[in-house]
Design brief:
5-stranded antiparallel beta sheet, Beta-lactamase, Penicillin-binding protein 2a (Domain 2), 7-stranded mixed beta sheet, alpha+beta
């Protein structure tokens, strides 16, 4: 074989080997590594995007928005994709809030434009159909008012998960399911338009209707703020609930010098020694165990008593409301006698007293839908010093309760002895409005028999009656109220200093519809007694609640009122999906006209007054009020100066 043939053969071999290597490499790439390189190519050509789901809204019981999610947009413009620059500049100037000249210069520069905004859906509507405009949607949590802020909670910055309050507790209900989308990009990673980029649509979260009443919540928060300011207190709590259903209608917590939205939810989280408001529970144990009857009396010792102890020196006990002579158990509750309750408490064993307090829910969480609820403090029998602790607990010491626990315990008495689990959630609905959950009352246990509950209710009525009761400053003109005052020393650090004033009540005294607990922490100006500090707050709240057309009080069930008064009460409004504006007023009661003749009065001139002041002036003349609009009063119908009969509806027209 000549050299030429050898060279040809060598070259053919090299080509065959090269071809074999190419085939082998192609086989490796396509058959062995095909899926890997396909994924790499897909990842470079496309990118996946998570589509945020709208978080569910939170409403009050009548549909007033407390927490909503609003969609907003960032806008990007790719100059190389713009078809009609003149139209884009014209629409973009109005929608994006930039000058026409500035937008023209940026487009001529050819660089990608980004406008952070954020812009609402209405603002960017003219840009939606324009080529070259890329909209980046996102959501923002908004709280239309600061009502119940510590209860509602907030979302942490740059997070869509609940961080506190109900936003955290109900996060699994409110959070939706994110969607997914795919978009195309060029070789350098720039995003390109893709006609069919959605893989799955996001599913919005469920909406929650709370048991809270926005108007009653506002009344509670305003009254609490006023009480803290007037008494120079450190803070306080108000809890209002329905004893039959356990529905919380208002929960207000406030600390002095702290904004509403930044206040801590101390009604759920901060236990305190309740003082005399706890005397009722020792009385309940004594009655249930037949340790005392209605005729038995103990000496009031003139308001000062050195109580003998089985070990150590006698214990000094004093009464703020000194009584000479002897006291029954009912008297001890009426005048809030520490001495009488300390004596009666010695008839109980430590186990019996512990079980009674435990049955009223102390020392355990109430089960309300709120994170980090405190269980309070309740000593076990082994931790008690028998005669000393029995007297202390009967006076409301050596026990820690939250305002909510105290309200739930009083609700059990108001509900004929049956304790009901408190709740903040009334309904849950899916994004289409379909009802998923509706609250039903959940009885926990019977704490005392109905007969004993009735006796305890009678004790509480005597506290508010005129003539000797410690809570007479909460007394209403036309309705009977039942309640108990409390004034307890505060344990701060390692010693007692200052006071906590409290008042626990239910309204009306017969067939109760509301349980109200008011606590004022460390009042330093004026009186620190619960009867002079917390009880008047309860009275003012109930007056305003009765003046409202929206707060759910069943007027037909109210006892202790005359037909004339009932006829002048505003009828409860039906449930609606939303309320544009509510009126918050104080309502001074007028005695009913027993003669049957209707008095005539002059319509007052309320021009220029705020809504509260205008309605108050109208009510003081004996008229009913209806408000149209928001802002300050501009006129009335009938006109100012006109004569009208008592009970006439005076329409107050207001403008911003």
């Amino acid at each position: 074989m000549n050299r030429t043939a050898k060279r040809i053969l060598f070259l053919q071999g090299c080509f065959a080997l090269a071809l074999a290597l190419v085939v082998l490499r192609a086989g490796q790439l396509q058959l062995v590594e095909g899926s890997y390189w396909s994924e790499q190519a897909e990842s470079r050509r496309t990118a996946r995007d998570t589509l945020e789901a709208r978080r569910g809204s939170i409403y009050d019981r009548r549909g007033v928005q407390l927490a909503v999610t609003q969609e907003f947009y960032h806008v990007g413009i790719a100059p190389n994709e713009v078809v009609d620059r003149r139209v884009l500049v014209q629409a973009g100037t109005r929608a994006l809030g930039v000058g026409a000249g500035e937008l023209q210069r940026k487009l001529r520069a050819g660089k990608y434009l980004y406008f952070y905004g954020p812009y609402t859906a209405t603002q960017i509507e003219p840009l939606r159909q324009l080529k070259g405009v890329h909209l980046e949607g996102s959501f923002r949590r908004d709280y239309p008012s600061s009502l119940a802020a510590p209860v509602i909670g907030r979302l942490p910055p740059d997070s869509s998960r609940g961080g506190s309050g109900l936003e955290r507790a109900l996060d699994g209900i409110l959070t939706g399911t994110p969607g997914e989308a795919v978009f195309l990009r060029d070789r350098v990673g720039r995003r390109l338009e893709s006609p069919a980029r959605k893989i799955s649509d996001p599913v919005p979260g469920n909406d929650v209707w709370l048991t809270l009443d926005a108007e009653l919540q506002d009344i509670a928060e305003r009254e609490l703020e006023d009480a803290i300011r007037e008494s120079s207190a450190d803070g306080g709590d108000i809890v209002v609930l329905d004893p039959r259903t356990g529905e919380l209608l208002a929960v207000a917590s406030r600390q002095a010098g702290v904004d509403r939205a930044a206040s801590s939810p101390t009604a759920f989280t901060s236990p305190f020694e309740p003082g005399s408001t706890a005397k009722l529970f020792t009385a309940a144990a004594l009655l249930r165990l037949d340790k005392v009857d209605s005729t038995e009396r103990v000496s009031g010792e003139g308001g000062h008593y050195m109580m003998p102890l089985s070990r150590g020196k006698p214990r000094e006990i004093n009464d703020a409301h000194k009584v000479d002579g002897s006291l029954t158990l009912a008297d001890a509750i009426k005048v809030s006698s520490n001495i009488a309750m300390a004596k009666f408490s010695q008839r109980l064993s430590t186990v019996e007293q512990f079980e009674a307090l435990r049955d009223f829910g102390f020392g355990s969480p109430t089960g309300v839908e709120f994170p980090s609820e405190s269980r309070g403090q309740l000593k076990s029998p082994e931790q008690m010093i028998p005669d000393y602790s029995r007297a202390s607990m009967a006076m409301g010491y050596e026990i820690g309760v939250t305002a909510l626990q105290l309200a739930v315990a009083y609700a059990a008495i108001a509900n004929d002895g049956v304790m009901v689990t408190p709740t903040l959630v009334r309904e849950v609905r899916d994004p289409a409005g379909q009802l998923l959950y509706q609250h039903q009352p959940e009885p926990v246990r019977r704490v005392v028999p109905p007969g004993i509950a009735a006796k305890l209710q009678g004790y509480l009525r005597s506290v508010v009656e005129e003539g000797g009761g410690t809570g007479d400053e909460a007394r209403l003109a036309n309705y009977e109220l039942a309640g108990k005052t409390g004034t307890a020393r505060r344990f701060v650090g390692k010693r007692y200093e200052g006071y906590r004033a409290s008042f626990a009540a239910f309204f009306p005294a017969k067939d109760p519809q509301l349980v109200v607990v008011v606590t004022i922490d460390n009042p330093t100006k004026g009186s620190y007694y619960g009867g002079q500090t917390a009880a008047p707050v309860t009275k003012r709240m109930l007056e305003q609640a009765l003046a409202s057309r929206y707060i759910a009080i069943d007027r037909a069930r109210l006892g202790g009122t005359t037909a004339a008064v009932a006829a002048q009460l505003p009828a409860p409004a039906p449930r609606v999906d939303a309320v544009a504006a509510v009126t918050r007023v104080a309502w001074p009661y007028r005695k009913p006209d027993t003669t049957g003749a209707k008095s005539v009065a002059t319509v007052p001139d309320v021009t220029g007054r705020g809504v509260r002041a205008a309605v108050l002036a109208v009510h003081q003349r004996g008229f009913r009020a209806s408000v149209k609009g928001t802002g300050r009063a501009v006129r009335t119908d009938p006109a100012a100066g006109s004569a009208a009969t008592a009970g006439t509806v005076v329409t107050i027209w207001t403008e911003e």
